[in-house]
Specification:
With about 220 residues, the chain is mainly β. The chain is built from 2 helices and 24 strands. About 10% of the residues are buried. This is MSP1 EGF domain 1.
């Protein structure tokens, strides 16, 4: 086949393809987009109008309860309750705010005022013992002891720091820690006795053998 024949064949195929495209059955607007819907801004699909939600390729009207409003979200039931109300099945009921409480940021729940904590649907006053202060964590006691004190039986007891020790906020049991070179023994800090060929370990409250030595009871020996 010469070049002239190839060009003529290609032209004929192009004409046939163009004719097929022009005569291809196009879906009508009514066939592709249901009632109460519109074409998506981006893409080839469709989405329901505001106030409607999709069910089985149709757009059904959202039934908004009293004290509710349309959310215009594509998930959920399409409505939510006004501030001061909360969901109760298909209704919005008024939130009963107890004494010493207020609506939270969501507007659909409440929380207790500072100095109070929730218990059985009420806001009870937090009793703060001496040498304590209000804590932001109201789920437990609602208060914490000042530095140098420990909570015990709903009181703040002064921590007795022995000689050669210091207050330790991480010491949840005793509240203090021995200085470097000393080791805790009950309520005291005794000096760490270093045997020959040993040094204080990373904690500073015990010892370990130098390199090339191994620990054997209270001594460091050559292996």
């Amino acid at each position: 086949m010469n070049n002239h024949s190839q060009s003529r064949l290609l032209l004929n195929l192009t004409i046939i393809l163009f004719a097929l495209i022009l005569n291809w059955p196009q879906p009508t607007h009514a066939e592709t987009i249901p009632m109460n819907a519109h074409a998506e801004k981006y893409g080839l699909g469709w989405e329901c109008d505001k106030g409607y939600f999709e069910i089985k390729n149709t757009c059904q009207k959202i039934q908004t309860p009293k004290h509710g409003f349309l959310t215009n979200r594509s998930f959920g039931e399409g409505w939510d309750c006004l501030r001061g109300y909360k969901r109760d099945n298909k209704r919005c009921i008024a939130i009963k705010i107890p004494k010493n409480a207020f609506l939270d940021d969501s507007g659909n729940e409440w929380e207790c005022e500072r100095g109070y904590r929730e218990q059985s649907g009420k806001c009870l006053k937090i009793n703060i013992p001496k040498n304590a202060f209000l804590s932001p964590n109201t789920y437990e006691k609602g208060w914490e002891c000042l530095r140098g004190f420990q909570a015990k039986n709903n009181k703040c007891i002064k921590i007795k720091v022995p000689e050669n020790a210091y207050l330790d906020d991480g010491g949840y049991k005793v509240g203090w820690k021995c200085q470097r070179g000393f080791k805790a023994n009950q309520e005291k800090c005794n000096p760490v006795i270093l045997p020959a060929n040993a040094h204080l370990d990373y904690s500073g409250n015990d010892w370990e053998c130098d390199a090339s030595y191994v620990k054997s009871l209270d001594t460091c020996l050559r292996p």
